[in-house]
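Long-time lurker. I teach an intro course on protein structure, and each term I like to show students one example going from raw sequence to a predicted 3D structure in C-alpha cell notation. This year I'd like something fresh instead of my usual example. Would anyone be willing to generate the C-alpha cells for the chain below so I can use it in lecture? Attribution to the forum is fine with me.
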Amino acid sequence: MADSKNRYNNGSNIFRPRARLMRAFGDELISNENVAVIELVKNAYDADATAVVIKFEGPLESDKGSMEVIDNGNGMSMQTILNTWLEPATINRIKNPRSERYNRRVLGKKGIGRFAVSRLSRSLSLFTRMKDAPKETSIYIDWSQFEDVDKYLDEIDIPWKEISPRCYKKGGYAEKVLQYSGGTGIEKNHGTMLKMTNLRSEWSDKEFKDLYNRLSRLVLPFKDSTIYDFDIFLDLPDAFSKFSGHVHPPESLSKPMYLISGCVNENGYYNFDINIGEKPENIRGKFQLEDKQAPTCGPLTIELRGWDRDSKSIQEMGMKVTQMREDLDAAAGISIYRDGFRVFPYGEPGNDWLRLDIRSRQNPTMNMANNQLVGYVIISSDSNSQLEDQTNREGFLENRAVSDLKELIKLTLKELEKRRYAYKRRNVDSKEPSGGIFQGFNIDRIRLLVDTEYSQDKQLTNLIAATEKDLQFKIEKVQEVLSRYRRLATLGQLIDGVIHEGRTPVTVISQQARLIKRELEHSENEECRGLAKKTASILSQTETLSKVFKRIAPFGGRKRGKPVAVVLENIIRDGFLIFEDDLNKLNIEVDIPNTKTKVTADSSEIQEVIVNLLRNSMYWLKKVPDDERSIVVQIDRISENELHIIFSDSGPGVDPSDKDMIFEPYFSTRNDGVGLGLATVDEIVTDYYGGEVILLEEGPLDGASFKVILRRRV
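-- Reply from a regular --
Happy to contribute to a lecture. Here you go:
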C-alpha cells in the first residue's frame, strides 16, 4: 500500500470568466467611440448592406440619448443570433471569409462588433430580419449586468424573442429611416438595427466632425470595379445638422494639383499615369528595394493626390484658401484600403506613419509633407496575406511586408515629386545667373560704361575701382562662410564613419591600459615583462586613431586656408579611405590612378567634391548585383590651366528625364535625399576653381559618369 504522503490529488477544470470581462474587452479592444461606430459600419458592409444610417437622438450627454445603426443587409436568423452573434470571437467568418450575397471579402473576422456596442451605450435592443423571413428576431442586453463583479459570464441572461415584423416591413421604422438616405431602389424589408440607449459619452460638435471625417474616408472615395455600392448616412439632431446627410469627401479633394495613379505588382513592376499641368504622362518600370529582394507585399493599387498649400497656388485653382487648407487638414495623409475599407489608423490626423514630415523638413523644396497629400493604397486580403492586423484592429503587425509597403509607397511618391519639381521649375522664371551663385556679382557693365564715356572723371573711376575691390572682398568672405557651412554639412554625414572607425581602437586602448595597470600593481620588479609589447600595441592603435582624425580634419569647420601645392591623387585616395569599410562591405572595386598630379588647391574642397560624388555612387551601386560594383577615377591634365577628373561608376545611371536637374539644390531622386550633394560639388568647382561639372553621355563605366573640370589653382 502506497504511503499516503506520496499520494497526489488529480483532476481538471475549466476557465470560467467573470462577466466583467466583456466590458474590459470592450474598453481595451475599442480605443474610442468613433472607432466603435466604424466597427458597426463594417459589420453592415459584411452583411451585404448597400446603405447604413447612423442616427442620434438627444440629449447627447453621458447616460442619456440614443444612437441607432440601421442597415439593409442580409439580416440574421434566430439561430445566427444565438449561435454566432452571442458568441464573441466566433469562427464563423474564418470559415466563411466572404459575404453571402455579394461575395464581399468580410472585414470583421474577430467577432468584436458586440464589444463596440458595449463601448457606446448602457443597453442594446437589436432587431433583425432576413429577406422574406416570416418573423423578426429581437434581443435585449443590459450591459450593466456585466459590471457585476460577483457574476460569471455564463450567469448573464440575454432575453430574445421572435415576433411578427415591426421594424423591417413595408411602412416600418427601418423603411422610414433608410428612406432618409434618399436612395432609390434600396431594399428596406430586411437588415439589422442596433438601438443603443443611455450613451456612455457626450457627443459634441468636435466628436461629430471627427466622426464625419473618418466615415468620409472609410469607403474608397472613388468607385472601383471590385467594390459594391455602399453608402453611409448620418441623421443628427438639428444642432449638428451640418454633418447630416450622405457622407462623402469634400469636393475640393477631387481636383488635385498633382496626381499619380496606377499599380505595382508583386514583383515591383509599376505602371502609373501622372497628371501635372496639361501634359499627362504614363511611366512604366520596376522599383528596386533597398535590399534588392522582391517585395513581400503586393500587388498594390496606389493613387496619390497632392497640393501646394501657399495662397497663390490655391487661388489659381479657384479655391478659397482657408477652406482648402481646412479640407486638407481633415483628410491629409495616405490611407490604406483593404477590400474596399479603411485600415486604421493609417492616414488618420496626426498619424504620419510614413514619416513624410521629417522627410519634407530634410528637403522642403523637393519633398512633399503629409499635409499636402491625400493618398489611397488599395490591397486585398487574398493577395497580401502577410499584412496582418493587430488584435485591436488598429494597424498591421510590424514585419517585412509592412516595411516593403512603406518603401513602395515612398518610391511612388518620389516619381510624383520629381515631376512636380520639374513642372514648378519650368513655370518659375529663375533670376539666378548661370555659372555659379556668384557669377552675377560684378559691376563689369558699369565699369565698361565709365571707362568708355567718363574715362576723364578720375573721382568716378576711382570710386568704381574701390567699389569693385570691396565687392570682391565681400564675395570672398561670403564664400568663406559658405565653405564652413558646407564642411559642417558634410561632417554631419561622416559622423557615423568616425564612430565606426574610432570606437574599436579606443576600446583596445582601454583594454590594454587596464592590463598594464593590473600588471604594474602585481609586479615584483619585473615591470618590463610584457610591458613593451603592450605599449607597442597602444602606440599602434593610437596611430590608427591619428590617421582617422587626420583624414577628417579638413571637414572640421576651420577657417579656409590658402591653397597649397598638393598631390591630387593623394587627396582623392584620402576621401575614399574615409569610407573604406563601407566600400569593402558593399564589395565595390575601386580604381584610382597611381600618378602624382601636382595642383595648387585647398585639400578640403577637393575632398568635399570626391566625398559627395562617392556617397552618391555608393547609394546607387546598391541597386546592382554585388559582383558588378565598380568606381573608376581618371585624371587628365589638358593644359597648364585646365585639369579634368573623371568619376565613373557601374550603377544604374541617371534617368534621362532627370539630367537637367541633378545639379540643382534640393533636387533628389533618392527616397530620403536632401538634394545637396551634386549641388555642392557644382558650386565648389564653379566658384572656387572656375570650372564646371558635366554629366557625361558615356564614360569608363556604364553607370553615372561625371567630368569635373578645374581651371584655377591647377
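Some talking points for your students: Confidence is low (pLDDT under 50) at residues 429-433. The CA atoms of residues 367 and 578 lie 29 Å apart.
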